[in-house]
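Quick sanity check, 3'-5' exonuclease DinG:
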Amino acid sequence: MNRLLVVDFETTGSNPRQGDQIIQIGAVAIEDGAIVDSFSSLINPEMDIPPFITQLTGITDEMVKEAPTLEEVFPRFLRMLEGRAFVAHNAYFDLQFLQEALLSQGYYTFDGYVLDTVELARLLLPMQNSYRLGELTVDLGIIHERPHQADSDAEATAKLYLHLVEVLRSLPLVTIQRLHMLVASFRSDIHVLLRHLEMEKLAALPEFEEKGTGKDEQMWDVYRQLALYKREEKLEASLKSMDRKHEVEESFEELLEETIGEQGRLLHNIPSYQRRDAQEAMMQAVFSAISEGVHLLVEAGTGTGKSLGYLLPGVIWAKQNQQQLVVSTNTIQLQEQLFHKEMAALQEALPFPVTAATLKGRGNYLCLRKFEQALEEPIEGSSQELRLVKGQMLTWLTQTKTGDVEELSLPAAGQLFWQQVKSDTGSCLNRACPWFSRCYYFQAKDRAREVDVIIVNHALLISDMEAENRILPPYEVAIIDEAHHLEEAATQHLGKHLSTTELLFLLDRAAVDCGSLLHRYVEELTLSFPETKERGEELLAEIGKEISPLREHVQKWTTYVYDWASRRAEETTDAGRETVRYRTEMFTGKSERIKRETRKIIEEMGEIAKLWDQLWRLLNKEEKPSFSLRSLRTDLHGLMQEWQQGMEGLHFFLLEQDPQYVYWMEVESRMARKQVHFSAALLQVSEALAEPFFAEKRSVILTSATLTVKNSFSYCLSRFGLDLLPEERVRTIVLPSPFHYEEQGLLLIPSDFPLPGKESEQAYLDAIVQGCLDVVLAAQGRTMLLFTSHSMLRYVYQAMKERLAHEEAPYLLHGQGIDSNNRSKLIHLFQTMERSVLFGTSSFWEGVDIPGEALSCLVIVRLPFTPPHHPVYQGRAELLKAAGKNAFMSIALPQAVIQFKQGVGRLIRHHLDRGVVVVFDTRIVESRYGRTFLQSLPPFQIESGPWPALRQQIPAFLGMLPLSDS
């Protein structure tokens, strides 16, 4: 493994057996950890290069016309490869081309060692967002000047490989040994590399070494054959916690001046900071509301600096009153940003010490005991993907301070494995666990108890409310950022959910084959208490007889329910799933079988639960089990609880429904596997929020850029249940954005576009495609297209891709759910590549921050109304109708306006930004309610008229052409 050749091929396609050819070779030789030679050449493929390959690589037919053929170049390349291991990024792509080329030239196929840097990177850099070569090189600071050109890619891959070897070399011996066991049967030869480094480390060990004095134990916390990141000593932690006792005697006004005044510490620490009137007004309003014990809704326009606007007064009040402040954001990503960016800046700027911590739901943290158990499971029979996931997590343990799953880049197999090893109450040994002092969840809870500011997400805030405040430390004041999501978060987390995938995974975990939880439990039980052996094995055999037919039964039932749902479902979700609302009364005639089979499944699960109970009782209360047995017994208890919840879930969703809920199923028609997701949501969450939450808290600050409809808070007040409180307990304030929208933004509304649903679907789609093309060409890319449905996004994407392929200058399209589901990755590609177009659905309507010229045009294809057949909307609409209210005006229109404001808010993100919004939905000017959308927007220049005239204004407004005199 000291001699390697790092290779990259550019090709005309992805399948050499169907005639695709190599058009460029890049190769870099490595010896003893250093680059010693390189080689690259264009290749004449003797065929036309497809346009999309030219677009991707920049290699044209003209460039390869005079280039040598593969036959001419190959001998030199093969001399370099001789006696070396083959290394590539996504190695099996390049290897298939190598093998096909060798055969076609009359050589033997390559039979040396193969290493894949994608696989190595996934194993050793488990916290990366992406394992694409381009993103890896950016994150690691590796120079990669010409992505998708073989010479540049090969050089970048060689440097990446050397970096990965250094990461591997830095790992503790115990981790390398465990990794070696996991990867022994991988397709590539990582195990050879690991063995080589393991021998290196063993050779470097001193002959005699006292426990605790070794280098690995000094650098890492090595315990029970696992190496963890060595966290800060408890003494440091206790010193930090003393900060909360620091008395703050200055007044709010004095501290404000000291922090943000002309001589303030914030200006000194952040030179780009500017005092803003709206931000200071927000600070005063927030401090006043908390001090006087009232709730406050703040709509703060883009550019106000609302994070600092609520954090500074909130922190000052908390320190003055020796209280904790809870701050909640909508997503975990925003939670992390708030902690690492805004809170960190404030800590530097304040004249007194402030401590902060994030806390997430328990299922976000790894249970070290469960992970230790999972590593003991037999490797044979487990998939390569699962072994890779376990390897990722072994490496991650040497890097993570938090044990938070959000840090990990897990594949699909990892998401399921996480369910097995995450922390939960049902299978926790608490203080009896040997890992207790190192437990990530309890450490996070301990930190949260000691700090001034706890940053959570809406999901945890609602969960704490539902758990009667047993999750978070007691608090009086909360600040809710992105508050327009509060009702949605409450709907989600006060609701109930079950999926057929979860059910089948539960059945897999209940298996009795060798290495399973039940099998290991019985083995350990009979080892400690031999008198239980006969009955234990009998029960295990009985469970085994029941489990297999039950799994088959559940699979058949899943297919039947899937077929029933898919025949009735319509696309209504952001994830592109199709949805059908249902009641159990609908299961009549042939569909009565759904209820009948559900009852049978619950009965069969009940029989297995009885057998488990008998197995559980084999151990008397008086007997003291070993740790290993106690650990397995705890996991079994957790599994039994989940089993019971599964039975209750089936009963709740398909047999006896609660009238307070609306029920629906979701199916994924584009997936090969037939899966059904069952959901139920409370019809009224406003009352659930009003009584236990707002009524009991001293002060809750709710803020967002979008809380009003036509400058009125009435919609949000009613949806949050704040209209049920005395008027004097609730205040509102609207703070304008400091941006000059009338100069910075232009809103174009074509008057000659077909109305959705009025003309034929094809004519409507054709008009949308042409309109989007016009905008993209006028702005030379730099455009984001926002859709309300995945199916329309896919249609427009494909149509535009075909038409733009004929343009002289290449355009790069980045489609959500097509090129990637990773929003950060798509945004990064859009920002860094010229002539880019970004296609997104609802998750792109907010939280996307792309300042500068990269985003110059925003297209809103349709007004973002919730589909009228969305189950939650339907259920709540029926409730309003029964009360004599208009559901469209009460919820559909306000929801759409808030979403529309969020979408438009993606464009102008900085006081120097300039951009054009195009709305292709003419209902905004032709319907009676359209004015509500326009009156809720910042003061853009608004133009409406025939599209051919409007589209000419785009390049002129963006400064790409001089304005005409006409």
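Posting the structure with no commentary besides this: The longest helix spans residues 533-568.
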